Amino acid sequence: MNPPDEMVSTFKKNNVEVITLTNEQADAWRAVAQKTSYKLFADKVPGGKELIEKALSVK
């Protein structure tokens, strides 16, 4: 089992709803997050902007 499949399986076994997004849906979600939760995190957490940038650089 590859890591993403194992992660999804683990979430589902623990009654977590898993939703798969298309690339377009994921891009739209990220656009909203950049203006809301990412911005709030960057503004409120010391070093938050750098942490968001590092997290988003992972592919």
Q: What does it look like?
A:
- The chain is an all-alpha fold and 59 residues long.
- The protein is built from four helices and no strands.
- The chain has helices spanning 3-13, 23-35, 37-44, 48-57.
- Helix 2 (23-35) packs across helix 3 (37-44) and helix 3 (37-44) packs across helix 4.
- The two termini are 19 Å apart.
Produce the secondary structure layout:
Layout: H1 3-13, H2 23-35, H3 37-44, H4 48-57
Give the tags:
59 residues
Sequence of secondary-structure elements: HHHH
Tell me the major beta sheet. Answer: none
Strand content: under 5%
Return the average pLDDT rounded to an integer: 92
- Note the gap between the termini: 19 Å
Overall geometric form: extended
Q: How much helicity do the residues have?
A: over 70%
Radius of gyration: 14 Å
How many β-strand stretches? Answer: 0
Residue windows where pLDDT falls under 50 for at least 5 positions: none
Number of helices: 4
By helix and strand content, what is the structural category? Answer: mainly alpha
In a few lines, what is going on in this structure?
This protein is an all-alpha fold and 59 residues long.
